Amino acid sequence: MMPILPDPLQTGKLIEQDALAIEVLPELQSRLSLRVAGGDRETLAAEIDIPLPDQIGLQAPLDGGAIACLGPDEWMMTLTRDLAALVQTRAGTASVPHALVDISSRELTLVISGSDARELLSVGCPRDLRSFTPGKACRTLCFDVPVILWCEAKDRYRLDVWRSFAPHLASLLLQSARAIKAEKDLSV
């Protein structure tokens, strides 16, 4: 039976078992979506004083957040609110065409951690997670729900998901986590 979760999801742990935890993070950071033509990337990066990774699928930690290159002209930033405000101010006077949109209200973050985190994600995510190592980030699907997947550490993944999909995705993750635990309990 699929668990029924509140909509909207509440901040905190959804489940914590032997080798796995699923948590809804509090809204402490701003999310900015940036689009800029590849030829203007370096100019804009200098003007907003934020390094923009030039390889799709890589993330770069920042003092106050992180930024991921999701496409040839697309970046996702998760920044402290103060840094996000500073970036928005600097971008407002940039000399190159770009789009910088605050999408903080659109998404929330689920964190999956523990030694079974990759196994849980592999149930619903079509990516080969063995090669999805710390420092990588991408758009993908998890149980057919569009997410931005970040690998923060060997056993820690972050999923940025639209709020409207979050209860559905969390329910499927919880159901799968319980199935993984039950299977491991039977094999003992």
How would you summarize the topology of this molecule?
Layout: E1 12-17, E2 20-24, E3 29-35, H1 41-48, E4 59-62, E5 65-71, E6 74-80, H2 81-91, E7 99-102, E8 107-113, H3 117-124, E9 137-142, E10 145-153, E11 156-162, H4 166-186
Antiparallel strand pairs: 1-2, 2-8, 3-6, 3-7, 4-5, 5-6, 8-11, 9-10, 10-11
Helix pairs in contact: 3-4
Short description:
With 188 residues, the protein is α+β, with helices and mostly antiparallel strands. The protein is 26% helix and 37% strand.
Question: Structural class of the helix and strand makeup?
Answer: alpha+beta
Radius of gyration, Cα only, in angstroms? 18 Å
The percent range for strand residues is: 35-45%
Q: Helical stretch count?
A: 4
User: What low-confidence regions span 5 or more consecutive residues with pLDDT below 50?
Assistant: none
Overall geometry comes to elongated
Structural summary, described in words:
The chain has 188 residues and is α+β, with helices and mostly antiparallel strands. It has 2 domains: 12-27 and 107-186, Probable tRNA modification gtpase trme, domain 1 (Gyrase A, domain 2, 2-Layer Sandwich), CATH 3.30.1360.120; 29-102, Heterotetrameric sarcosine oxidase (Alpha-Beta Plaits). Helix content is 26%, strand content 37%. It is built from 4 helices and 11 strands, in the order E-E-E-H-E-E-E-H-E-E-H-E-E-E-H. The chain has helices at 41-48, 81-91, 117-124, 166-186; strands at residues 12-17, 20-24, 29-35, 59-62, 65-71, 74-80, 99-102, 107-113, 137-142, 145-153, 156-162. The strands form 2 sheets. A 6-stranded antiparallel sheet has the order 1-2-8-11-10-9, covered by helices on one side. Strands 4-5-6-3-7 form a 5-stranded antiparallel sheet, with helices on one face. Strand 5 (65-71) and strand 6 form a beta hairpin. The radius of gyration is 18 Å and the shape is elongated. The model has no long low-confidence stretch (mean pLDDT 93).
